[in-house]
Amino acid sequence: MSDNDWMNAPRLLIEAELKPVAGNRFQPTGFADLGAAEYQLPGGMSMLLVESAQSVANRLEQTCLDGTGPEIDPVLVGLPYIVGELTGGPMGTVRTSSLMEAHRMASPYFLLNKKFQDQIAEEMGYNPKRPLNWNKIYATLFKYDPNSLIHGVFLSLLEGGRVRTPRAVTGFIEASDVKRVLSGGVKNSPVDPTGKLQVAEAKAGGEKGVYSNVPYTRVEYVAATITAYFNVDLSLIRGYQLGEAATKLLTSLALLKIRRFLSSHLRLRTACDLELAGAIMVKSPKHFALHDEATLLEDVTKGIAACAAQFAAPPVTLIITPVKIVEKPEKPGASA
Fold first, then answer.
1. What is the CA radius of gyration of the chain?
2. pTM (predicted TM-score)
3. What pLDDT is recorded for position 335?
4. 300 burial class (0-12, 13-18, 19+ CB within 10 angstroms)?
5. If you ran DSSP here, which 8-state letter would residue 73 be given?
6. Domain residue spans in the chain?
7. What is the model's pLDDT at position 204?
8. How far apart, in whole angstroms, are the C-alpha atoms of residue 78 and residue 302?
9. Phi, psi (rounded to 5 degrees) for 64
10. How far is CA 125 from its chain centroid?
């Protein structure tokens, strides 16, 4: 299949088998009031969600940061994104960016800046009481932050909250034929195992179990297989109608993120350190070969140059946003 043939496929499906780097046990993702997400297939196979789609999306975004951010990896300079300088807070000026904000370019640090909100609304041709012009919307999102088109964005702070795009790349990690591994331990206090000795200025009853020996239980898992799944929605990317160069750039950038994620230090949690157990497999379309990281990076840098006329100038949009600390009122009856 030629490079042009696969671009006409509806999606790219990629799988990679993983394994713990040491031993067999691993710690899955957990959810508040739920714990680990265990379930069974109709045939009875026990399954486990190791990493959710939300978490993998965040980890894919991190692959293109300069260290921990907020700036972009220097090899990707020229790719547009938004930087916010938050001024007036107790820590002085703090920088953040659409590459690391939970809502990407929809972050309140950007959209509550009236000048910027009015600017993108005008460029999108946005009117909350009229039909949406999606061609202008996609072009504007691509202009300021192409990553928002890859990972999805919801401009809820734009009047009416009507602009929403889904993820073009979805990834998650599952384990099959899983078994629980129950163990435990104890947090030892070398000073006073009974916990009777406490700091004099501590609030009464507020630190129970902090000082004494504290036993705990631990639940880990073993599995027959651990598999990472990725779905690149090529139909959605083509549907942005941004032109061939932009379509190739978004697709290459998505594949670069996947490749970097799988070849990185996959220590997802304290007790979940994974590595590739074999080759990365492309399940669909057939005969498509996933390029190595160097080739994908070259494709992305060529795409950045080819799309320069569609990007903001300069590509990094700086927004200065004053912030303040808002003290929450104390609940009635709360101890002083």
1. 24
2. 0.90
3. 53
4. buried
5. P
6. 3-322
7. 72
8. 11
9. -110, 15
10. 29
